[in-house]
Amino acid sequence: MESTEPTDLNKLRTEIDQIDEKMVELFNRRARCVQEIGRYKQQNHQAVYEPKREEAVMANVARSNRGPLPDEELTTIYTAILAAMRRLQSPDLLERK
């Protein structure tokens, strides 16, 4: 079994920290889009939850996956992301802008 030197471990952790920062930026970018969609839905009296759309998102995620993360893990992650994004479309949160 190959061991990782502490300096390599630190480099990898630094890289993970940088990736996490980019992911947070992308989550917030996605959230801003979701808020705009929420405003549109509210103005047009449309439901926040659209099961067909969420199925399409999950299919797109699975189709885009090149690993090593298994599809099942991505499904778990995206289930949580979609739930958080749906909450952002609630009228009380949309009003905060």
Key features of this structure:
mainly alpha; single chain; 97 residues; 4 helices
Care to give the gist of this entry?
The protein is mainly alpha-helical and 97 residues long. The protein is 76% helix and 0% strand.
Describe this structure in words.
- The chain has 97 residues and is mainly α.
- The protein has helices spanning 6-43, 51-64, 71-88, 91-94.
- Helix 2 packs antiparallel against helix 3 (71-88).
- It is elongated, with a radius of gyration of 18 Å.
- The relative contact order is 0.11.
| Largest pleated sheet | none
* Total E-strand runs: 0
Kindly report the average pLDDT value: 92
SSE order, one letter for each helix or strand: HHHH
Uncertain stretches of 5 or more adjacent residues: none
* Number of helical regions: 4
Distance between the termini: 52 Å
SSE blueprint and pairings:
Elements: H1 6-43, H2 51-64, H3 71-88, H4 91-94
Helix pairs in contact: 2-3
